[in-house]
Design goal:
about 70% helix; about 230 residues; mainly alpha
């Protein structure tokens, strides 16, 4: 994920395809178990390392939109409450997995899905933003999965971690779902769901793009200069 363009492209692919990762397919396919399935997916993405590829942002947005259009027959308040609870429970689970397993949990070779660079970028994000990373990381695909475990590995104070996780859970799980619900009232949104989902994913990786640009600028300004003692 060293290049934000790659991050955006890969996140968009995960959000819209393959078919089994498309929110427009997932929710109807779950039928009467849609609410339980949504909760399980959000829990897995927020707390289990194997869930990092799941389409959390677009799934939340689509769930809200489906409530607005009547496709999902669940009260909005109940949907938001359960999704926030699952996001928080996922964070708690991921934190204690990291705390119990320690650094060894990230000591594994690359595979088709898992890449060491995911861990490295998450660590950089965590070190840069500190406590705020738990909140901000919610809105960054892949980072939101690994950062919960990394907080546990780093033995971040549990009470402080839970506080920031709660704030982030409300802002992300409820916020993105409500955004989908409110925008679902517009005909353009209903008729161009895939376009809107691309926009949602693009916004979610915006922090990566911003940091990439800032890092490039800072690197360009940091031109090494010779000390007077070293000059002839």
């Amino acid at each position: 994920m060293s290049d934000p363009v790659i991050a955006l492209a890969s996140s968009t692919v995960l959000a819209l395809g393959p078919k089994w990762l498309d929110p427009n397919y997932i929710i109807p396919a779950l039928g009467p178990f849609a609410l339980a399935g949504l909760c399980l997916i959000i829990f897995a993405e927020c707390g289990l390392l194997v869930g990092f590829f799941l389409p959390g942002d677009s799934l939340l947005f689509t769930a809200g939109l489906f409530v607005a259009t009547g496709v999902l027959d669940t009260p909005l308040w109940l949907l938001c409450t359960l999704l926030v609870a699952c996001a928080l429970l996922g964070n708690i689970c991921g934190y204690w997995i990291g705390r119990a397993a320690g650094p060894a949990i990230f000591d594994k070779p690359d595979s088709r899905l898992f890449k060491r660079e995911y861990v490295e970028k998450t660590q950089e994000f965590f070190e840069k933003y500190g406590n705020k990373a738990i909140v901000l990381g919610r809105f960054v695909p892949i980072v939101r999965t690994f950062i919960t475990v990394m907080a546990g590995v780093g033995k971040m104070d549990a009470k402080r971690y839970m506080t920031y996780s709660f704030i982030g859970g409300i802002a992300w799980a409820a916020g993105v779902t409500l955004l989908g619900y409110w925008l679902g009232g517009f005909e353009f949104v209903r008729e161009h769901i895939e376009l809107i989902l691309i926009a949602v994913v693009a916004i979610s990786v915006l922090p990566i793009v911003v940091e990439f640009v800032k890092a490039r600028r800072e690197k360009g300004r940091a031109v090494p200069t010779e000390s007077p003692a070293s000059q002839p």
